[in-house]
Amino acid sequence: MNNPKTKNSDQNPKRELLHRFLNENNYPRDLYHDLMQFKVREILLVGSLYDAYSLESEGRFAEQILGEYRHLNLTFTPRITGVSTKEEALNQLSKKNYDLVVFVIGVDKKNPVTLSKTVKEKCRNLPIFFLLNSNDELAYFKENKPGAVDRIFSWNGDSSIFFVMIKLVEDFKNADNDTSLSMVRVILLVEDSPQYYSRILPMLYRAVLDQTRKIIDDVEGDELYRLLRLRARPKILLADNYTEAVSLIDKYNEYLQCAITDISFPLKDKIDKNAGYKLIDHIRKNAGDIPVCIQSSDKSKEKHQNNVCFINKNSGNLQDKIMKFINNFVGFGKFIFRDEEGNDIAVANNIKEFEYTIKEIPEIIKISCRKKSFQLMVNGKRRNTAC
After folding, report:
1. Most confidently modeled range among 105-109, 173-177, 295-299, 325-329
2. DSSP single-letter state for residue 264
3. Residue 133: which of 59, 80, 221 has the closest Cα?
4. How far apart are CA 141 and CA 192, in angstroms?
5. The whole model's pTM is what?
6. Where are the domains of the chain?
7. What is the mean pLDDT of residues 339-364?
8. Are 190 and 259 a contacting pair, CB within 8 Å?
9. According to the CATH classification, is domain 183-332 in 3.40.50.2300?
């Protein structure tokens, strides 16, 4: 007769081994599940009937937001609820938990400001954004910045600005968790002009998400696992003054991947024409030799500094220049092996090609690699690379 005790004792070690194997293999998947925990699920859009009609007829924004999510293989699309009066807005906020409130600003500027204060008093941590229908209104709100509003954006006829507003809120809310949990990188944009950051942010998000998609295309695993890896993309954080920028640099200095900064922006409640250069000094002292890009509408402000590039804000090919910076300095482009003289040795387009190429590069680099460290010129920048 079999002894049940002996049978159980024989199976327990096997069961423990199986559990350990499953845990080890599922750990990467579980880690990605724990990233991007906060999602913008409900958006309250407040605007007059005319403003709502203007946006819908000009860009069909709801349809195009869905298109942005589909294009980028993002699985969840937030729901947008539109209201046109104060009573409707307060009624919706009393019935449902919203993650973001967007005011579409048209001819009437005073009522949205008053209502935004009321909303902020009721929902202290609820992000409130203003979306201006034209750049003419920027001057008014620059002089009369509403204190209850977190960000002001400029409508340029491109509905991707809604996608940007959603992702900015999510990145800000998730940055602490994702950097500490999985060492997710951070890209910092310092810009005080809504007109300019409303143009630049869509370019940055498209560059980051497109690059992330290219990376996961080379990853083995099922479709769910690859989609989850999108959550590990770099977070984009926006600062519109020196104090806010320094606070973000000090908080995320270990994870800062690059910084794009204006030159002239507020420092101690006053516009400082050299705030950008002061910020670069702070970055170098606290975040090291990370890539930095200066952007300015004044080309005379260009200064040649170590590992710093310059972009003219008024350039006709601004998007191409932003992409060039991202690809050449931030490492989003091809991995180029170069020798000490700067001659190209080989190019790797993805991780698989890199793994193959590293075995085929000249023997002199292999010898240096055996010494635990070697130098490569990567996109024009010399890096010490651990083996």
Report:
1. 173-177
2. S
3. 59
4. 12
5. 0.79
6. 36-158, 183-332, 335-386
7. 72
8. yes
9. yes
